[in-house]
Amino acid sequence: MSVIRNSNPKTFFTAFLLLTFFSCTQKKKTTTNGAEEKIISVSFSNVGGNAGSYRKVKVNQDSLYLEKGTVSSKEHTVWKSAITAEDWHQLTSHFDIKTFSTIKSSESIQALNGIDETFQIKTSKTSHVYVNAYTDTIHYKQLQKFKDQLSQIIPKEYQ
Question: Where does the source fall among the domains of life (predicted)?
Answer without folding.
Answer: Bacteria
